[in-house]
Amino acid sequence: SVTSPAAGTKVAVNLPQTITADAASGAGSISQVQFFVDGALVGTDTAFPYSTNWTPVSLGTYVLRAVAQDNLGNQTTSPPVTITAAAPPTISITAPASNIALTAPVSQTVTAIPVAGGAPIASVELFANTVSLGVVAAPGPYSVTWNTSTLGSYGLTAVATDGNGLKPTYQQVNVT
Question: Is pLDDT above 70 for 117?
Answer without folding.
Answer: no
